[in-house]
Design brief:
It is built from 10 helices and 9 strands. It is of the alpha/beta class and 259 residues long. The longest helix has 24 residues.
Length: 259
């Protein structure tokens, strides 16, 4: 089996991080792939760095957009692969990630997830995020880690793409919607990507919580479930903050590892 894989990178003013991401993609030995880069109209040196590798990137678009969801959707519109994976600027594919996916995937699944290495550059702490493939009524285990989530192009056509009105919890919404509509999930017990911690979803706590609660309502959860999840999010944030004051690595190993 040799599925075509579309790798999509979205970027905006990511001159310090974009090169390592591009290199991690173009150095993949797997040949049946395409690389799509969607830039939101960067005003720094992002596009000059992209230009160094232009011949190795299949599609490059640089224009203003409506945010990350809009950029994701643009990439999906241009993708021709059987499966699509999002590797944002700053994140990395592990060595031979695409080959590992191709060797372990099975036909007939809409969403296939591998393990993600969560890397805190400040402390050099690395933890392993194992995939979530069941999103319960109250999804206490909710992290998506789209960097190691491969979604079939047909699934996007069948269940829809990203909600452009969401700016942080769009991937959470996608997983709940796919689950609600009967998508088939599978997991691969291999490390496929590195998530460099500290991005927008890590730093916009209140807005993230608001969007996550909004997403629960959109996807059929009742008031009690939403209230319970809200309490959980606040307790989780409190624990994270306390652990961060004690030892950031402890926070990463306990909170992130079990979520």
């Amino acid at each position: 089996m040799n599925p075509k894989i579309s790798v999509i990178t979205i970027a905006y003013n990511c001159g310090k991080e974009i090169e390592s991401t591009i290199i991690s993609v173009i150095h993949q030995q797997y040949t049946n792939k395409e690389y799509i880069l969607i830039d939101g109209g960067s005003t720094d040196n992002t596009m000059s760095i992209v230009g160094k590798y232009r011949q190795q990137i299949d599609v490059v678009i640089s224009e203003k957009d409506r945010g990350r969801s809009d950029a994701f959707n643009k990439g999906i519109q241009h993708a021709t692969g059987d499966y699509i994976v999002m590797i944002n600027a700053g994140d990395l594919l592990t060595e031979n990630a695409l080959q590992t996916f191709a060797e372990n995937y099975r036909e007939g699944y809409d969403v296939i997830k591998g393990h993600t290495i969560r890397w805190d550059e400040l402390t050099n702490c690395r933890t392993i995020e194992r995939p979530v493939i069941r999103y319960n009524g109250i999804p206490f285990n909710f992290l998506v880690c789209h960097q190691s989530t491969y979604i079939s192009r047909e699934a996007y056509k069948k269940y829809g793409c990203y909600d452009v009105n969401l700016h942080i919890a769009m991937d959470f919404d996608l997983m709940l919607r796919f689950t609600r509509k009967g998508a088939k999930f599978m997991k691969i017990g291999r490390e496929l990507a590195v998530f460099r911690m500290g991005g927008i979803s890590q730093s916009s706590g209140k807005k993230r919580h608001h969007e996550m609660l909004q997403v629960l309502g959109k996807n059929g959860r009742n008031g009690l479930q939403i209230f319970t999840f809200s309490i959980y999010l606040h307790l989780r944030t409190l624990c994270r903050n306390i652990l961060n004051m004690i030892n950031p690595d402890l926070k990463n190993r306990i909170i992130e590892h079990v979520s």
